[in-house]
Specification:
A hairpin with a 4-residue loop joins strand 6 and strand 7 (90-95). The strands form 10 sheets. The protein has a 5-stranded parallel sheet with strand order 5-2-1-9-21. The chain has 5 domains: 3-116 and 243-313, FAD/NAD(P)-binding domain (3-Layer(bba) Sandwich), CATH 3.50.50.60; 130-240, FAD/NAD(P)-binding domain (3-Layer(bba) Sandwich), CATH 3.50.50; 332-446, FAD/NAD(P)-binding domain, CATH 3.50.50; 451-557, Rhodanese-like domain (Oxidized Rhodanese, domain 1, 3-Layer(aba) Sandwich); 587-666, Rhodanese-like domain (Oxidized Rhodanese, domain 1). The protein is of the alpha/beta class and 667 residues long. Helix content is 28%, strand content 25%. The chain contains 20 helices and 37 strands. Helix 1 packs parallel to helix 8 and helix 6 (192-204) crosses helix 16 (538-548). It is elongated, with a radius of gyration of 30 Å. Belongs to the class-III pyridine nucleotide-disulfide oxidoreductase family.
């Protein structure tokens, strides 16, 4: 009879035990867990502290009793494994509560000990008001401190996944929170502009952000930073990373890998044939570049646990590796990454490039549309998708999963361009953000749509003695925020001014998201300009990169941070039109955009009568059918329709002023 012994529970170990029982009704399965809980939802811990999960019991997935009842698995908690005898196939343990020692025999052994939070060597790190978050016990200590000591301020050390989730949790518990990150920006594994999206969200909720600095001392009610600052802190949360639990494996003589984890083959078999391993303690192959990596994530750990159990019981299931797909929600903002970042791809020797697009997650005319951002990383020579990142308030996870699937299937950007994604106005767009990203990548590869990433701008500018930067957005967007030194030339006015633009000087173009920038680039190239590039992602990407990392050679006028609060209800403004009687004006300028668009900036003395109101006759225009009327909108499309409606109603002197930029330049 097979004696399967599993050391470690939670994700990989508990999954391995359950899978093993389904595979073999007769095997003797025993699980040894060092802690008091065998299977719990450790990814849910921050959300219990935040109050999003209202019951602690929901986090307990299995107990030793339920595991035995459901799977006939013998579970021993509070069990410290002291040594492994590979020759005798024995494991020696002691109970951490009563000191009782015992020896277990096995025919096959699965190691699933995971990792532990790194404890920085900082004075004061062992104080009672300093915490880490890894187990239910850790969670209970934090919750007790919040309820009984009523802290007002907190410092979270580490701006990774758990760190930012705990920032949100503590803000929701009413604390003033600072996050300290040693790297250039929070979420260091993400590109700066993706992290910038999260940075602006954190700032909107009043979180203090301190990057490129470290905590050097923790006091009773403050922390000291290496940049000389002192932050108030009634409690401190340490979240600086996870170290794999390897001492037992090292003592047993098992081989370690180049990435610092336990070495396993594609069967998840260690250097000892009868010992398998899974979860955070192992290093595995990255599916994109084939390098050995450690990816401490719940998804891979669960899948590895299943495969380790299968192979330990005689199976032949190869683990293909991990893509490292991960996503985080910070307040309302969601961002994630998968595969290789551009920096990682180039460091691996791949001739890689990337593009960025920002697009509505569903059709813009259906209520509730939010911008979703996609960065697509690809091999410049083959077009194979290498990875990517997404960000947005809605729809970011869906697009991230598409990129992950493309990485797993080794699809090219051209393959992605031709995918039919689900479309309905409340759900998506006819050309999804993923299609648009693929189109942009194809255009960049072919040279049809040359572009540059915001992360590359500093280095690019250092190579140029002469350069023109064109901001082709409308005048109101330009006034609110811009790249200092940029020439403002709205897209509608580009064609009439082509003769004024030097053809032998490098030209950078940007709009709000990059889409109109591409159109401008094609116009300029067609006019004979020699070197033209669109800033990929436009002003949106510029703002995000500036927020997270800043620029050396660019001075950006930042957009103000819109303050948010927990439980805030955003009220719609009801007063939309100017307090002017349209019927009294001899010359009438009508803005036919929506009230929201009108509030963002309008032509002087214009009256806002939305196109829908003009069509239904709600706008009061008076009896003078011959007076001059000028209608305009964002692009000229809706105003052309309004012109037709008014003329059909008998108004004889109606002019279509076109888009807002054209209006501002013509009149």
């Amino acid at each position: 009879m097979e004696k399967l012994l599993i050391i470690g529970g939670v994700a990989a170990g508990a999954t391995a035990a359950a899978k093993a029982r389904r595979l073999s009704p007769n095997a003797q399965i025993t699980m040894l867990e060092a802690g008091p809980d065998v299977s719990f939802a450790n990814c849910g811990l921050p959300y219990y502290i935040a109050g999003d999960i209202d019951s602690r019991s929901k986090l307990i997935l299995q107990s030793p009793e339920s595991f035995n009842e459901q799977y006939q698995v013998e579970v021993h908690v509070n069990t410290l494994v002291e040594s492994i005898d590979k020759d005798k196939k024995q494991v020696h343990m002691s109970n951490s509560q009563n000191g009782q020692k015992r020896t277990f025999e096995y025919t096959k052994l699965i190691l699933a000990q995971g990792g532990r939070p790194i404890q920085p060597d900082v004075p004061g790190a062992g104080a009672d008001h300093v915490f880490s978050l890894w187990t239910l016990e850790d969670m209970d200590k934090i919750d007790y401190h919040l309820k009984n000591n009523n802290p007002k301020t907190a410092v979270v050390v580490g701006g990774g996944f758990i760190g930012l989730e705990m920032v949100e949790a503590l803000v929701k518990r009413g604390l003033k929170v600072h996050v300290v990150e040693k790297m250039q920006h929070v979420m260091p594994l993400m590109e700066a502009e993706t992290a910038g999206f999260l940075t602006r969200e954190l700032l909107a909720f009043g979180v203090g952000i301190h990057t490129e600095t470290a905590v050097i001392k923790i006091n009773s009610n403050s922390v000291e930073l290496d940049n000389g600052k002192t932050l108030e802190a009634d409690m401190v949360l340490l979240s600086v990373g996870v170290r794999p639990t390897l001492q037992l494996a090292k003592d047993a003589g098992l081989e370690m890998g180049e990435a610092g984890g336990l070495l396993v083959n594609d069967q998840l078999q260690t250097s000892a044939p009868d010992i398998f391993a899974a979860g955070d303690m192992v290093e595995i192959e990255h599916r994109v570049n084939g390098k050995k990596v450690r990816i401490p994530l719940a998804g891979p750990a669960n899948r590895q646990g299943r495969i380790a159990a299968e192979n330990a019981l005689g199976g032949n299931h190869s683990y293909k590796g991990s893509i490292g797909t991960s996503v985080v929600r910070v307040f309302d903002a969601v961002a994630g990454s998968t595969g290789l970042s551009l920096q990682q791809a180039r460091a691996a020797g791949i001739d890689a490039d990337a593009v960025v697009v920002h697009k509505e997650h569903h059709t813009s005319y259906y209520p509730g549309a939010e911008t979703v951002s996609v960065m697509l990383v690809f091999d410049k020579n083959t077009g194979v998708v290498l990875g990517g990142q997404t960000a947005g308030y809605k729809g970011a996870d869906k697009r991230l999963d598409v990129i992950a699937t493309a990485c797993a299937g080794k699809l090219t950007v051209s393959d992605l361009a031709d995918v039919d994604f689900a479309y309905s106005p409340p759900i998506g767009t006819a050309n999804d953000a993923m299609n648009m990203a693929a189109y942009a990548a194809e255009n960049k590869m072919s040279g049809y749509g040359p572009s540059i990433l915001v992360s590359e701008l500093d280095a690019y500018l250092e190579t140029k003695e002469r350069l023109i930067v064109l901001d082709i957005r409308d005048v109101f967007a330009h006034q609110k925020s811009k790249m200092n030194g940029a020439h403002h030339l709205p897209l509608e006015m580009l064609q009439p001014n082509l003769d004024r633009i030097p053809k032998d000087i490098a030209i950078l173009v940007y709009d709000e998201t990059g889409k109109k920038g591409h159109q401008a680039v094609r116009t300029l190239i067609g006019a004979g300009c020699k070197e033209v590039m669109n800033i990929s992602g436009g002003h949106t990407s510029l703002q995000r990169h500036a927020a997270a990392a800043g620029f050396r050679n660019i001075n950006m006028l930042p957009l103000p941070i819109e303050k948010k609060s927990i439980g805030e209800k955003v009220m719609e403004e009801t007063e939309t039109n100017k307090n002017v009687s349209a019927s009294e004006l001899k010359k009438l300028v009508i803005d036919v955009r929506t009230p929201g668009e009108f509030r963002s900036g309008a032509f002087p003395d214009a009256v806002n009568i939305p196109l829908d109101d003009i069509m239904t006759g709600k706008g009061e225009l008076g009896e003078n059918m011959d007076r001059e009327i000028i209608v305009y909108c964002a692009t000229g499309a809706r105003s052309a329709y309004a012109q037709q409606v008014l003329m059909s109603r008998g108004f004889s002197n109606v002019t279509n002023g076109g888009g807002i930029s054209a209006m501002m330049s013509r009149y």
